[in-house]
Specification:
- The complex is a heterodimer.
- Chain A is of the alpha/beta class.
- Chain A contains seven helices and seven strands.
- A seven-stranded mixed sheet of chain A has the order 3-2-1-4-5-7-6, with helices on both faces.
- In chain A, helix 1 crosses helix 2.
- The longest helix of chain A is centred in the C-terminal third of the chain and has 20 residues.
- Chain A starts with 5 loop residues before the first helix and ends in a 5-residue tail after the last helix.
- Chain B has a single domain, classed as Roll (Ubiquitin-like (UB roll)), CATH 3.10.20.30.
- The chains are: A alpha/beta, B mainly beta.
């Protein structure tokens, strides 16, 4: 069956979200940094909401150990995550403007690579890399909105995962303590709860909702 | 008095580096804001907390 036209898909989103909100989503550009359990789920949520431009970034390839929680398919094993997720996002939201970069983000390339994105999601796996990205963005790009994730490992109750507003432009999602290096595994549903918090925080910021 | 992560503490005169050491927190896994301004990592040792400062120490843990 042929896919709907751009106008048909946009009108369906307007029907769900209202025209004013959908115009804001469609005008927004969001970078998702890291395309693992957090980032792949964040990007899909944002694409489904009709965010106009998504910039997805990861240097890694899809591994069999990712399939327990990351939004990839067995036939995508070995592909760069940026390419595999881009393919999936195009099926979900064919008219979304997707930029996929297979590159490792560093203090040196972050200001240039993220300069065109209004909203930035930190979705890395390692704690020191999370801190690197957050500090680099806050120090060098104070005009950006930044949402980060910290603490979603294990199988504790999902009710401890929260969105905390640190400053007007910086939010952190997660329980803040559950560390994968303590031997806790990463389980699909709890990681998705944290990813959903991050995606929801970004959508609220785009909508102009700046309370907690 | 200084407000750190929502708690009023007598940490005036201490540096950010001192506070992180007391919290047994690696400076490589945090972001520190004072009065809504990021403290660059290179300035942790030279940034002294003043009475009335509102400090947020965001600690990152692994997993994603």
């Amino acid at each position: 069956m042929p896919i709907p036209t751009k106008e048909e898909m946009y009108n369906a989103l307007v029907e769900r979200h209202g025209r004013e909100l959908q115009e804001k989503f469609a005008a927004a550009s969001v970078a998702v940094c890291g395309l693992g359990g957090l980032g792949s789920n964040i990007a899909i949520a944002l694409a489904r909401a009709g965010v106009g431009s998504l910039h997805i970034i990861d240097f890694d390839c899809v591994d069999i150990s990712n399939l327990n929680r990351q939004q990839y398919f067995p036939e995508q094993l070995g592909l760069p995550k940026s390419q595999a997720l881009s393919d999936t996002l195009k099926r979900i939201a064919p008219y979304c403007n997707i930029t996929a970069d297979c590159v490792k983000l560093t203090e040196d390339n972050i200001p240039e690579l993220l300069k065109n994105d209004d909203y930035i999601c930190e979705a890395f796996d390692k704690a020191d890399q999370k801190a690197m990205l957050v500090n680099c963005v806050l120090e060098n790009m104070p005009e950006k909105y930044l949402v980060s994730g910290s603490g979603m490992a294990g199988l504790s109750t999902a009710n401890t995962i929260k969105t905390r507003k640190i400053t007007k432009r910086f939010y952190v999602c997660g329980d803040g303590v559950s560390d994968v290096s303590d031997g806790l595994g990463l389980v699909s549903a709890r990681v998705m709860v944290c990813a959903a918090h991050e995606a929801n925080a970004v959508l609220r910021l785009i909508a102009g909702e700046t309370e907690e | 008095m200084v407000k750190i992560n929502g708690e009023m503490l007598e940490k005036d005169g201490m540096t950010v580096a001192d506070v992180l050491a007391e919290m047994e927190t690696s400076s490589q896994r945090v972001a520190v804001e004072i009065n809504e301004n990021i403290v660059p990592k290179a300035e942790y040792s030279s940034t002294v907390l003043k009475d009335g400062d509102v400090v947020e120490v965001v600690r990152f843990v692994g997993g994603g």
